[in-house]
Amino acid sequence: MLKYQIFGLIFLLFLLGCSNSNKPEEIKYGVDVCSFCKMTIVDPKWGAEIITNKGKIYKFDVVECMIAYANSILKPEEIKSYWTINFVKPKEWVDATKAIYIRTLQFPSPMGLNSLAIENYADTSKLNLKPGYEILSWEDVVKKAKEEYLH
Amino acid sequence: MKFFLGKMLLKKPKKSICINIILLLLTFSINPLISRIIEVDKSGILRTIKSAVNVARDFDTIYIKKGIYYEKDIYINKPLTIIGENGAIVDCRSEEGFGFLVKTKNFIIKNLTIKNIGISYIQDNAGLKFDSCENVLIENITIENGFFSIYFSRSTNFTIRNCKLSGNKNRTESNSGNGIHLWYCSNAKIENNEIRFQRDGIYFEFVKSSLIQNNFCENNLRYGLHFMFSDSCSYRGNTFKHNGAGVAVMYTNRVYMVENTFVDNWGPSSYGLLLKDIKRSYVSKNNFLNNTVGIYMEGTDQTLFEKNNFFKNGWALRITANCEDNTFRYNNFLANTFEVATNSSQSRNIFDRNYWSGYSGYDLNKDGIGDVPYIPVSLFTIIVQSNNYAVLLFRSFFVDIFEIAEKIFPSIVPKYLVDRKPSMRQFKW
User: Fold this and answer.
1) What pTM does this model have?
2) If B241 and its partner were Cys, which of A143, B7, B78, B218 is the partner (CB 3.0–4.6 Å)?
3) In what helix (H) or strand (E) does residue B20 lie, and over which residues does it extend?
């Protein structure tokens, strides 16, 4: 009887291992390298990730690298989801296509697009924003990244 | 004649006396405009630097006497000179904030120690932070236990010289800042500094026409030098030793990299020098010693690599397929485990007259150039490239036989990546 239970457990673990989860993986800062720009990822405010349909995870140092990678190396049909770090809560992931982006020179980003991601407008209270910022949607950020970064 | 001369001699002093008197009067009349020296002393009238800055008028000098000053957020918005006595220390006590924040033209700071700068995840706190400045001189500054140490944004014409900057040994990449951080700056000169235990030793982003010279960057967590979008800059005579991932130069045109030393950058994603998207640049007389990869190149075009020494690296060069029109000449490749690795299937770069210690050809006409062309990509390099773990078999009998067979009947190794005139003798640069 015990044998069957153990087998069952192993089988369950096997299934769990196989499940193609749609959750981003934690970035190991100082170890992981950005898939696009090859820089070691160090800044916990800016990380981003792509999960493909096959379950492969690509890590990036910042959202513009993710967009550049998605538009130059991957095929659109390969990509399952885009993720980005919440700028004010550096341990939390936000769906990059639904995040709010604030573009300001007050917070320079690693690759110069300077567009930080937050989940909702309540998060802006922690930023102490000065006039001269722009609020962008995912589509705007993709457009800007293509124009300015991936020429 | 004598009389005439005598008259001249008599007349002249009179005139200069007159001028002197006028000048003296003038100086007295503009006395309030002459700069003063304001002393900050633990036991004096002005006991804090902040109070001295408040009292000071434009172009005054603040002299900080010996002692520890527990201050932070010292805000400077007028042209001043700040000089410290030996043993003058500003301690920020690791609280949130910066040491000095400067927004002015014509500022000089010298001989001062700044300690314990607080960590912030949102603000880039720094020991010395400059925004929109012009004509600044920073000299003999020591920063200990810094977050960011010296931080410039939107500034021009400044010099950072003879400074010793260090972060905290026990921090990780994500809670440490850069040693010298420049963002949207131009005409900067950074020389003779020592930078340790920071995230990136020197960080350049959107910087134009600047010079980095004779610096020593050691044990930084990520890069010794990190260089992005910074056209027409040069760095020479620097030493980058044992940094987390070496030196990265990216997305830049016209970079001049001369006489630098890249040593002991070991690790799975570590390089002596990482070049990505670099155009029309010059890499010469550099020493690459004991690095996992000497130079890793991606998207690098029209660049000349000459007179460099590659010694005891894992890979001397790794060139990806998107590098075009680069020339490698008069370089020394000595005792590297692998000389060149590439994933390219075409020849787009020129190798000419390099010295390869792996070359075993002959020179019958004795012109100093080997008669047999040399292919620096070995068979085993290709095997390792497609299967990393195969490196276990390196230097085994089996692999040696394969290599010899490949040399006699070349079939797998790319024939296009070839040095047709390999030098027989080592160059002395």
Assistant:
1) 0.84
2) B218
3) helix B2-29
Residue A112 has its nearest CB partner, among B199, B205, B276, at B205
Range of the domain at B383: 89-408
Q: Give domain status of residue B424, yes or no.
A: no
State the CATH number of the domain containing residue B162: 2.160.20.10
Digit-coded pLDDT (tens) for B158-198: 999 999 999 988 888 778 899 999 999 999 999 999 999 99
Nearest to B174 among A43, A108, A127 (CB): A43
The residues of A whose Cβ lies within 8 A of any Cβ of B are 29-30, 33, 37-40, 42-45, 88, 90, 107-108, 111-112, 126-127
DSSP element (H, E) containing B316: strand B315-319
d(CA B272, CA B266): 8
Q: What tens digit of pLDDT does each residue of A75-96 get?
A: 888 999 999 999 988 889 999 9
In chain B, the number of structural domains is 1
Whether the complex's predicted ipTM surpasses the cut of 0.85: no
Residue B52 in domain: no
CB contact under 8 Å between A40 and B269, yes or no, is yes
Q: What is the largest CA-CA distance in chain B?
A: 106
Mean pLDDT of the B82-89 span = 94
For tokens 């012109």, the residue is B367
